[in-house]
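Figure-free illustration: sequence to structure, shown twice.
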Amino acid sequence: MYRRFILAAVLGLAYAFSTATPAYQLAPPQPAPKTQQQPVPTAHDDRLIESGSYVNRAGLTVHRPAHTVSGNAPTGATAQCRDGGYSFSQHHRGTCSHHGGVARWL
C-alpha cells in the first residue's frame, strides 16, 4: 500500500516538474565589452594609473604606490619601488614593502 503511494507521489512530482514552465528567462547574450585604449603617454605625463590610499602611522592619508602613464616620477613621490611604481611614503620603514622593496629614493 505504501509502495504504491510513494510511487504515485514520485511519478506525480516527476510529471509536474517535466511540464512546469520555468519561472525565469535566460537573458540574451551580451556583446563583449569594448576594450579601452590606454592613453598615449607624453614625455611629461605623470598621471597615476592606480588609485587608493592608506593611513600611515602618523595618522595621515597617503596615496598608495602607483605607476605613471609615462614612467616618470610623479609629483610628491619619495621613492621608486622595484616593480616600477612610485611610493609617496613619508617614512622609510615599510616603503614599497609589497612592491619588491625600494629601488631608489627620490
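We now fold a second protein in the same way, so the two outputs can be compared directly.
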Amino acid sequence: MSRRKHKQSAEDKAEIDLTPMLDVVFIMLIFFIVTASFIKEKSLDVNVPENTDNLPPPETESKSILVQINANDEIFIDQRRVDIRSVRSLIAQKSAESPEGGVVVMAHEHASTSSYVAIADAAREAKVYNVSLIPRKK
C-alpha cells in the first residue's frame, strides 16, 4: 500500500503547471494587439489617370500651368529649368494670368515623390489648389 502512495506522489510531482506560461502568452498577445492598432502607415493619396493616351497634350491647355519633372528631379516650367525655390513665384505669376487654371505636374516615373510634394506645396502657397499629377515614361 505504501508503494502505491509513493507512485502517485511521484506522478503528481511530474506534472507541469502551464498556467503561468499561458498568462505570459496572453499578456504578450494583448501587448501586440494594442501596439498594432496604433501603427499608421504614412501614404500620399494621388489620383493618377489609368490611360493617359486619350488626354490632350498639355501644351494645348492654355489655362493649366505645366510643370515637368525629369528623372534627375530637375523642374521645368515653360521648357525652362527652374529652381525649386522659384516655383511658387512662377506659379503665382502664371495663376494671375489665368486664375481658373490649375497646375499639371508631368513627372518622370523615376522622379522622387519629394519633388512632387514640393511643387504641390508651392502651388498651395500660391493659392492654387487644383494640382494634378500625370506620369510619363520617357
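Summary for the second example: The chain has two domains: 2-37, 58-136.
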